[in-house]
Amino acid sequence: MSATPPVGHGLGAPNAAVGATPASRGVGPPLWLLLELTYRCPLHCVYCYNPTNFAHTGPELPTADWIRVLREARALGAVQLGLSGGEPLVREDLEPLVTEAHALGFYINLITSGVGMSEARMRALKAAGLDHIQLSFQDSTRELNDFLSSTRTFELKSRVAALIRQHGYPMVLNVVLHRLNIDHVGEILELAEAMGAEYVELANTQYYGWAWLNREHLLPSRAQLERAEGVTQRFRERLGNRMQIYFVVPDYFETRPKACMSGLGSVFLAVAPDGTAMPCHAARMLPGLDLPNVRDSDIRTIWYDSPAFNRFRGEAWMKEPCRSCPERGRDFGGCRCQAYLLTGDPDNADPVCDLSPHHALVTAAVARAEQAGSAAPAAARERPLVFRDHRVSIAVITGDPARGGAPARRA
Prior knowledge:
alpha/beta; 15 helices; globular
């Protein structure tokens, strides 16, 4: 979740028709740029969206390449910048990158666990022009916060939250919800209130990356979800405008899919640590998607001309029931990565949609999660939690993670 600056800054969309492929004609600029500066991270979160095989990706881009990407994207019309990872604070060049982005006119959001932040670094980032910091917590208690990330970070995060307030930033907290902490929503919101949070995003887990491997442990029951929504609403009524609370419902409990990235290749451009350019955070898992790299191509060419960014533009790629669905212009067929993970084919309708012929895959997963009220599902008992680990590389497993898959490989 990020504060949204005025979009445009007086920039018009570039002339996309010049040299554009048919799918890219009429496409505007990538307004939202996400730089995943590194996959290095001191945390080992069981729901991390980073690819499970990130240990086998190439070396990180050097500072000069990141600066070139910033300049090219800004010239193309990008206005909002996210700096994430891994943990972006492990990059020693973070301050120079923020300085450059600020000079270019980006609105800059740092997405961080807080590990690596200090008083001196906070001052330096403020001086460089950082606009916004989103701080993550795993839970309201030290015990579960530290268990879910497999690190002792609760006290550190609390100190960083205080630094954020001291240096005049809006207090923005993010907590990823799942079966293991969703019953603590009241305590999480009490913690946020005590810290003076102005914005809280309660983001239910999205099941790709490491969360996909752990879905049988993490997917909550419907009763858990409804209780959490009720607690959240009561907090909203009590606090009014003092704290804005965003509760993001998990896809699996909806009957229509989200409009993922407002349609792939529409407004969002991500660059992975090794320079791979992606139309969404998780797109490198999609088969047959020959993703370009900023080491080899400029941002304009990547955005308008690359087959990967044009692959899911428009409607020509759609299969039924999406192709003739009157809602296709609203949800764009849903999440391509979710469709691939659940069905093995990224062209299929997102199985979250109850019109999808594969919707039973979602309802079956939800039905298993309902068992959590009395006992952990059998698949969860048989398969331990898999913590994010840079020493382990796990190939993407499609189908049903409850049925097992490829074993982990040491990197």
